[in-house]
Write a structure and sequence with these properties.
By secondary structure, this protein is an all-alpha fold. The protein is built from 13 helices and no strands.
Length: about 300
């Protein structure tokens, strides 16, 4: 019992920095409800809680996998992180991971056989990813490809949410557009997470700004954001005939995202970087809520 309490206490401090549960939960909710809406499912508390529980459990699982894979790298280049500093041990994180997998298995079984099958594929893929896709450390040197292949783990989660909403769903035009919309949103989340200010890249060679520079990285973000907005507009056009009710809100949200991007391009400080990330979260979340309300 004492060990469990100690692990829980250490995990509480760990999640504040590396896996903020409340922030992640609130970020996931808009995409979950819009996913249920586009497949024509009843978006009730049962669906939302099931999808949210599985999503958080799976994301925690792959977060723990990252800690194991990156342990040696972080000891050398990120000594202030919780595992590197000794705030939590890998053994404790392994116990947390077992609990996350248990939650994922039980909840996906509750959701139905199809959901359990998709969840099984996801866990199998994460197992391969944990072993560096059996290519060893040399694969990590291909930074962009390495991150792209690992990103597939999160994209699979979107398919699981559709399956929970409707086990017999099929890829209609609307669902394809919505999947691309959520996929670009996920890519942007992961991309911005590794965009740092000049001089803040550290020595690990593990940020996009290290390879691209800040100006090019922000240009990539702007292109991805424009694509995300276009996909949202296409999804809305497939759902409603009038643009009167959603276009003004969509424009304001997009203006906020691109406005903070320009501010950060000029200021180049941590505060404006965080503001730029927050404005995209607000825009993406707002677009998902508009999609949900359009049904």
């Amino acid at each position: 019992m004492t060990g469990a309490i100690s692990t829980a206490r250490h995990f509480y401090f760990y999640q504040k920095e590396r896996f903020p549960l409340i922030v992640l939960g609130l970020s996931l909710l808009p995409a979950i409800v819009s996913s249920g809406a586009v497949v024509g499912a009843q978006v009730d508390s049962r669906f939302v809680l099931t999808a949210l529980g599985i999503s958080l459990a799976y994301l925690l699982h792959i977060r723990v996998i990252d800690e194991f894979r990156d342990y040696a790298h972080d000891l050398e280049h990120h000594a202030d992180r919780p595992v590197s500093s000794g705030a939590i041990t890998l053994a404790e994180l392994q116990r947390v991971d077992w609990l996350a997998l248990l939650v994922m298995g039980v909840v996906s079984a509750y959701a139905g056989f199809q959901a359990l099958l998709v969840a099984g594929v996801m866990v199998l893929y994460s197992h391969v990813a944990r072993r560096e896709f059996y290519m060893g450390a040399r694969f990590r040197r291909h930074f962009f490809l390495y991150n792209a292949v690992n990103l597939i783990q999160i994209l699979l989660l979107q398919l699981l949410v559709y399956t929970i909403a409707d086990p017999t769903f099929s890829f209609t035009t609307l669902i394809v557009v919505h999947f691309l919309f959520t996929s670009t949103g996920t890519i942007i989340f992961e991309f911005l997470r590794k965009v740092k200010n000049p001089g803040a890249d550290g020595s690990g060679k593990d940020t996009y700004t290290y390879y691209l520079g800040l100006n090019t990285a922000l240009l990539v973000y702007a292109i991805l954001a424009a694509l995300n907005i276009t996909l949202f507009a296409n999804a809305m056009a497939l759902m409603v005939s009038s643009i009167v009710y959603w276009l003004p809100v969509a424009v304001v949200l997009a203006g906020g995202a691109f406005g903070t991007l320009l501010v950060h391009l000029v200021a180049r400080v941590e505060r404006t970087n965080k503001l730029m990330q927050l404005s995209f979260i607000v825009m993406y979340g707002g677009y998902n809520i508009l999609l949900f309300l359009a049904i």
